[in-house]
Amino acid sequence: MFLNTSSGRLKNVFTISFLLIVHFFYGQNSKIDSLKIELQKHTAKDTTRVNILNHLAFQHYRNNPPQAITYVQNALQLAKEIHDESGTARSYYIYGAINMELANFAEAIQNYDNAIVIYKKNKDLNGLEKSNNALGVLYTYKGDLELSLKHYEAAKLIAKQSNNTKSLHKYLSNIGVIYSRKGDYEKALSNFKNALNVNIKNKDSLGIINNYNALANAYYEQGNYPISLEYYNKSLHIAKNSKDSIGVFQAYNNIGNLYRQQNSNKKALAYYNKAYSIKKARFNIKNVTTIKNNIAGIHYENKDYDLAITAYLESINLSKEINDESTNLTTAFNGLGFVYLETKQFLKALEYFTKAEKISLKNDFSYELLDTYQGIAETYFKLNKYDLSLVNAKKLVDLANKSESLFHNKVGYGLLAEIYNIKGNYKEAFENHEMFKKISDSILNEENIKKIAGIEYEYKYKKELDNAALRETKLTKTVETTSLDLEKSRRNLLLGIITFLVVAMVLGSIIFYLKLRNSKAKTQNIITEQKLLRTQMTPHFIFNSLSVLQGMILNKEESKSVNYLSKFSKLLRITLENSRDKTVLLSQELEAVENYLNLQNIENEKITFQLYIENTIETNTIKVPPMLIQPFVENAIEHAFKIQKENCVIEIKLTLVDSKLICVILDNGMGIDSSERNSNQNKKSLATKITKERLDYLSKDFKMDASISIEDRSKYNAQGTQVTIQMPYSKIVL
């Protein structure tokens, strides 16, 4: 999980970093050549030469940072020499952009601050606007979202004051990034799409690439991978047409991250290698270390630990060469720590986690610290140093609460529960385990509603298919056994004819008839049970329930969504468990019905449910066939109140009358007669038909009467439908 989290974060960082500059045009080799010629011609030490040098630096800052540094240093030196404040501020700004690309963040901040001082002095609104935007990018990278948003809003305000409508799309995009990081995807997507429309109108290829990536990231974070991939491919197409090597690199890296998130490591590695093969992108060491870390992560996940160690060490050495202490370095240190933890080299693991901790604390890298504290706590736990593990697990939980990281919260509370349990502090162990379970449920809800739907769908329908296949196999075996028995009977019959012709023929006929009837009864019973199982919790109900759950989550109704999912899962488990047994306790059957009703009550508050059980009925001593009541309750919910909007009541009454167990289901809806008039006259309830067939077999099994009747309550001067089931049952002798 650590590796996936890290790779996803790095991907977002790259997308954000490229929002910094919006005036850069691609495929400008002719412009660079023209500027070089102009520089050769203009040898005078004046503002014109300063401007030419700054232009050249800016044209090279992405694809050739070393050359850009040479130009900007010459421009800055000349601007100071001739007291050109405008040129000096511009040089500082470009120097900040170059350092940003090279991951020299302290130098970048210093240069942007130097530029702002001069821009304020000269009341240069355009320069102030760009510098605030650049600092917004930088603080976004550092994880200070509020400070980042502050700078973006400041830049947007300046753009409005100066009537610079062409730059507003840039701030829409950057502010969208902040909302995406905060998890407010609706606002994020709105900002990105508005910015994209402006980019397309202005034919701004870099802006288009950035917003395609931003949209892809937002959909990626929501788990909508097909749409995310579509936008990444659009970004790649524009970058290739623009001959933007960094843009192509970025697209390959992002697509690799997308496949990695879906556990398609082979595809992910192929795209990472494509990105690494772009030589022009390697001028930016940050690009190389990112790809090295991602490739190392793939090797880790594939358990190729030696390859993972090699790649992480290469990334670390590259970062040290340029004195880069960015998140790429801490990611590599943490990565090595987890590799050594996995290979049980605990002292080495601690060594690298400690290095990561030092850098993260120094630079306030809160996300990386989460991984670090997790690694340290788990390593000390493996070393049986529970006190040290406890200290770091608490740090992990505290920081996870501040950062709102559910995954790290789950890991932290799980560790605390284990440690307290080992130390004999069972109260703390229990409380932390309860938090662990609660957060696990929250992760199940929040991280990917599509995963929930997929898991529930797969669990429900695959299990049903497996059960159906198993029953069909048993049915086939029964038929084959019957056929073999018939063959044997016939042979015996032929042999018997020789000596006892008449008697053998009579006995053979009786045996044949009994076996055939028994086989037919078994087959019919199996088919009936299969049909009944398919009527329970219909696909309509499941997908409706999951839609309701998704709505709750998107509305951030955490408590309500957790409660809903808990009841839904419990109902699903009880239904599947009860379907395997011939009889269940009446209390279990009623529990399943009550869970179903509770779930419906959350979803449909207009309906009131009432359950009456006669005092003489002991639900824990009576066993009944499962799944007899729920289909009729579901029919009432779906069909009885199509017109009626208020005062909707469903009652379930259980009574013993002359040793007969009677279940009556009443509703005050439109009534069965009205329902049939408003629908297809020939259409009958599948559940009703199957239940009637089943009761016929059960009455023989239990050797007691079993029946069902459905009546319109109008004949009793009341409104609605009445379903009466005489249920077969057996008593447990205590």
Automatic annotation (TrEMBL):
The chain crosses the membrane at residues 493-514. GO terms for molecular function: phosphorelay sensor kinase activity. Signal peptide: none annotated. Residues 529-603 form the Signal transduction histidine kinase internal region domain. GO terms for cellular component: cytoplasm; membrane. Keywords: Cytoplasm, Membrane, Repeat, TPR repeat, Transmembrane, Transmembrane helix. This is Tetratricopeptide repeat protein. It comes from Flavobacterium piscinae. The lineage of its organism: Bacteria, Pseudomonadati, Bacteroidota, Flavobacteriia, Flavobacteriales.
